Amino acid sequence: MSSKYAGDISLPTRINLCYDNQHDLKYNEIDLRAFGDVLQRMGKFELAETIYHRLLDKVSSSDSSLARLYHSLGNTNKEKKNYDSRLKWYQNSLEVFLQTHTSAFINLENLYGSMGEGYSYKKNIHQSLDCYEKAIK
Q1: Contact at 8 Å (CB) between 39 and 51?
Q2: For the segment 100-113, what is each residue's pLDDT rounded down to a tens digit?
Q3: Residue 95: count of CB within 10 angstroms of its CB
Q4: Do residues 27 and 15 lie in contact, with contact meaning Cβ atoms separated by under 8 Å?
Q5: Lowest-confidence segment of 25-29, 33-37, 55-59, 91-95 by average pLDDT
Q6: Residue 106: C-alpha distances to residues 30, 46, 98, 111 (Å)
Q7: How many CB atoms lie within 10 A of CB 40?
Q8: Where are the alpha helices (DSSP H) in the chain?
Q9: Does domain 25-136 have CATH number 2.30.30.280?
């Protein structure tokens, strides 16, 4: 497989599919979220968002992986230029992260920076600056 872009890397990917009645959810949730992230990077935003929403129905509100899932939804809405939804999902991610303090996948500075960027697009300079200040602390 050749690429027209210099520096592109092709990595083998293994995807385990399962039936809806299989209940090995923790393993499958991680794989599905990661698969959603891959779809997002491929520009398949609607499909990625569908996967993330399906996972939301299966993850408990006390699960620390919820912060990463919300963050992925924020990133998808960022790419789709849905600024209100983007900020809603990032805010949800921040709230879960601050409650659990266990999500190693979320870089708090990057999350605040992403929120600041979202507020900037909405012309909400005060909120944007507030988020950027939190990002650099």
Answers
A1: yes
A2: 765 455 678 888 99
A3: 13
A4: no
A5: 25-29
A6: 15, 23, 11, 7
A7: 22
A8: 25-41, 45-56, 66-79, 83-100, 108-121, 125-136
A9: no
Alpha-carbon span 60 to 71, nearest angstrom:
16
What is the pTM assigned to this prediction? 0.70
Nearest by Cα to 79 from 109, 36, 108, 112:
36
pLDDT digits (tens, 9 = 90+) for 22-45: 444 444 445 788 899 999 999 999
The Cβ of residue 67 has, within 10 Å, a number of other Cβ atoms equal to: 24
Q: Report the alpha-carbon distance of residue 49 to residue 57 in Å, rounded.
A: 13
Contact 51, 36 (CB under 8 A): yes
